[in-house]
Specification:
The complex is a heterodimer.
Chain A: H1 16-31, E1 44-49, H2 54-66, E2 70-74, H3 88-98, E3 101-106, H4 111-118, E4 123-128, H5 134-148, E5 154-159, H6 166-175, E6 181-186, H7 195-205, E7 208-212, E8 224-227, H8 238-245, E9 263-265, H9 286-305
Parallel strand pairs in A: 1-2, 1-3, 3-4, 5-6, 5-8, 6-7, 8-9
Helix pairs in contact in A: 1-5, 1-9, 2-9, 3-4, 5-6, 5-9
Chain B: E1 10-16, H1 21-27, E2 37-44, E3 50-56, H2 64-70, E4 75-80, E5 83-89, E6 95-97, E7 118-123, E8 129-132, E9 138-140
Antiparallel strand pairs in B: 1-3, 1-4, 2-3, 4-5, 6-7, 7-8, 8-9
Classes of the chains: A alpha/beta, B mainly beta.
Bound molecules: zinc ion (ZN).
């Protein structure tokens, strides 16, 4: 169970034990961040962002800087040599000389996997098209574990675009492996959770899955409500979009019957699916979620680099 | 029935699904052969109603992976001295490298010149579904 030198391309690259290792270290970092401020002294994280994603990039950069390491890379492929058609294999071989670990974001699906096959240093997938975004899943898991104190025995609802939502598919596939998880999928018919994935959940994990279009009818019984954006371009016609978009706007008034300790999560950025009056409800944890993203990336980078994390707090 | 002399030394690809014979013929570039080759179409068969057969009067390497992708009922008989000396089993390949492209238009394997598409068999049922090593998208091989 040594993560040193490994890659993280898909969240399934980590066993449940390894996942636990990452989350446990991340929690220690939450509790005493200063104790880890030097563990990556002298190490460099390469950030190869072939498409802009300011949030993800800053989260990784912050994580490395908070551990005393350095970062270098590009955030716009069109301004670098890769725009001239250099193959990923060549780029990563060179980046592996400049940096001790690399995070890659790429619009093409499978690009980080390809990079990992040629890389002399650990590669972290920072998002590849609509395919994978494993550190978002780790972030979601840390948020739940930290704020609920557990990752099992949960009734978890996902609301919005469940058809194309990469973060949803990824989190569902990991939570499904944990004991006594129930899922509630709330979406318009056009954006339902994929049937083949639902069947897989039921067949492989014998999980209870509830599907509905009506958020208010199920909200009273949830431990977690994970909201996602509904994008206009996913709809075939404007009328359907207009009809449905408002039904999934989470307003304070809809929270009346929800449990006091339910978590409202969102991968951010939000557009209008959570109204601002929800922000100061203590169940709204999406900004904390973004903060946990830094800690989980700190833990991941430290473990892949294999630096000594056995620090003594003050 | 149409009579075709048996071959003395070479290969018989038998039990090809009707209509696929000519496609295999093309794939194996048999139109460029300088040795006797016969393509038989719509031949009566006991196993399936009709089948195609290719007879090649020459010893050459046949890509069994390709044949396996087309139909696992295809048989390959190696002939020497007018007798079958070896029957090669065609199997649905578990791993396929390079033979076809990933159908996902956003997949890196369709863009980076240095990457060879690689696939793993995920379903055997009625369809051959191959999962892309890079993007996980499922692609069916169609000859
Ligand atoms: Zn692919």
């Amino acid at each position: 169970m040594i993560l040193k030198g490994r890659h993280l391309i898909d969240q399934n690259d980590l066993s449940l034990e390894e996942l636990d290792q990452v989350l446990a270290l991340a929690e220690k970092m939450v509790d005493d961040r200063d104790a880890y401020s030097k563990v990556c002294d002298g190490k460099i994280l390469g950030t190869l962002f072939y498409e802009p994603s300011t949030r993800t990039r800053l989260s990784f950069e912050s994580a490395m800087l908070r551990m005393g390491g350095s970062v270098l890379g590009f955030s716009d492929a069109s301004a670098s040599s890769v725009a001239k058609g250099e193959s990923i294999a060549d780029t990563i071989r060179v980046a592996g000389v400049y940096a001790d670990a690399v995070v890659m974001r790429h619009p093409k699906e499978g690009a980080p996997k390809l990079a990992s096959q040629f890389s002399p240093v650990p590669v972290i997938n920072g998002g590849d098209g609509g395919h994978q975004h494993p550190t978002q899943t780790l972030t979601d898991l840390l948020t739940i574990r930290r704020l609920k104190g557990r990752l099992d025995n949960l009734k978890v609802a996902f609301c919005g675009d469940l058809k194309f939502g990469r973060t949803v598919h990824s989190l569902v596939s990991t939570l499904a492996k944990l004991p006594n998880i129930q899922f509630v999928f709330i979406s318009p018919d056009e954006l339902k959770f994929p049937k083949h994935m639902k069947e897989h959940l039921i067949e492989t994990y014998d999980i209870e899955v509830i599907e509905t279009q009506d958020l208010e009818s199920v909200i009273d019984d949830l431990d977690i409500l994970y909201m996602t954006r509904i994008q206009k371009e996913r709809f075939f016609n404007e009328a359907d979009y207009v009809r449905l978009k408002d039904s999934y706007i989470l307003e304070r008034s809809k929270l009346k019957t929800a449990k006091q300790d339910m978590l409202i999560m969102h991968p951010l950025p939000r557009v209008n699916e959570i109204s601002y009056d929800v922000d100061d409800d203590n169940r709204a944890v999406y900004f904390q979620q973004a903060e946990f993203g830094v800690y989980v990336r700190m833990a991941l980078i430290a473990l892949l680099l294999g630096v000594d994390t056995d620090v003594k707090g003050e | 029935m149409l009579k075709v002399n048996s071959i003395n030394r070479g290969i018989v690809i038998d039990h090809i699904p009707v209509g696929k014979g000519i496609k295999i013929f093309d794939k194996l570039k048999l139109n460029e052969a300088d040795f006797p080759v016969v393509l038989l179409m719509n031949v009566s068969s006991n196993i399936s109603q009709k089948k195609d057969i290719i007879k090649i009067e020459n010893v050459m390497d046949i890509d069994l992976t390709l044949l396996g992708l087309i139909d696992s009922n295809i048989t390959v008989n190696i002939i020497d001295d007018n007798k079958i000396i070896e029957k090669k089993k065609v199997e649905i390949p578990g791993d396929v490298t390079g033979m076809f492209k990933c159908k996902n238009s956003r997949c890196i394997s369709n863009f980076d010149d240095y990457v060879t598409p690689k696939f793993k068999l995920v379903h055997k049922n009625s369809k051959l579904l191959y999962s892309c090593e890079y993007c996980d998208e499922l692609t069916t091989y169609v000859l």
